[in-house]
Amino acid sequence: MSLQVLWDAPIAVRVHVYTVLPAFVLGTWMLFLSRKGSALHRTVGRVYAVLMLLTCGAAIFIHVLNPNGWLGLSFVHLFILSTLFGVISGLRAAGRGDVGGHRRAMIVTYVSGLIVAGGFTLMPGRLMHALVFGH
């Protein structure tokens, strides 16, 4: 594994990686290990939400898959919309005290925005594939 691939990447890619990796760690902890509803869960949840929103902001400027397409967007950019919708819906549900709605929104956001979208980054030819597998 060589971090040189990351250092050589465009700034949008680096910001995306620097925000999504801690979001993944925090999201995993929140989903599987945290005590739901505790002050720590709420505080870490706010940090997670900000990281996910920053991740989406950076992702808008990543045009590796379709650089010559409409605005450089590709099918992967649809995960930006689902993540934004999920984070905002989850926060609104939590604010209303709708625990079930909050849980559903956060699980869908975690799975689609981190697991599925993250899986695409491990495909051959992508930066994370090169970073993790060294090819």
**SS-derived structural category:** mainly alpha
The residue ranges in which pLDDT falls below 50 over 5 or more consecutive positions are none
Output the number of helix runs: 6
Radius of gyration: 16 Å
Tertiary shape? globular
- State the separation between the terminal residues, measured CA to CA: 9 Å
Please outline the major beta sheet: none
Determine the strand fraction and express it as a percent band. under 5%
Return the domain count: 1
Short structural description:
By secondary structure, this protein is mainly alpha-helical. It has helices at residues 4-7, 11-32, 39-59, 78-96, 99-121, 127-133.
Structure overview:
The chain is mainly α and 135 residues long. The protein has one domain (4-133). Helix content is 71%, strand content 0%. It has 6 helices and no strands. The chain has helices spanning 4-7, 11-32, 39-59, 78-96, 99-121, 127-133. The model has no long low-confidence stretch (mean pLDDT 91).
Present the secondary structure layout.
Layout: H1 4-7, H2 11-32, H3 39-59, H4 78-96, H5 99-121, H6 127-133
Helix pairs in contact: 2-3, 2-5, 3-4, 4-5
